[in-house]
Amino acid sequence: MEKYEITMTPTRRCRRCGRLLFSREALENGYGCQCAKHVRQEELARKPIDGQISLMDFLKAENGG
Ligand SMILES: [Zn+2]
Question: Is residue 2 assigned to a domain?
């Protein structure tokens, strides 16, 4: 009797577009190489930019602080 092993690991598919991943790097990232670039850019965009002031600092400056 033959047994078929069905693997449904989410890491085998790109978490962004759902494409199957084959390269080791893609499997480690969880994204295809194109999507990894997009995700990296999105992560960078989410991080606060150097020199950006908080709302409290902005209000203090507005009040002549
Ligand atoms: Zn993808």
Answer: no
Residues 7-23: pLDDT tens digits? 655 558 898 999 999 88
Residue 1 lies in a domain: no
Cα of 49 from ligand 1 centre, angstroms: 27
C-alpha 44 – ligand 1 centre gap (Å): 18
**Buried residues in 12-27 as b, exposed as e (16+ CB within 10 A):** ebbeeeeeebeeeebe
CB 21 within 8 A of CB 5: no
Q: Mark the residues whose beta carbon lies below 5 A from ion ligand 1.
A: 14, 16-17, 19, 32, 35
Interval between CA 65 and ligand 1 midpoint (Å):
48
Q: How many domains does the chain have?
A: 1
Question: The domain containing residue 52 runs over which residues?
Answer: 10-62
Model's pTM, two decimal places?
0.51
Average pLDDT, integer, range 41-63: 79
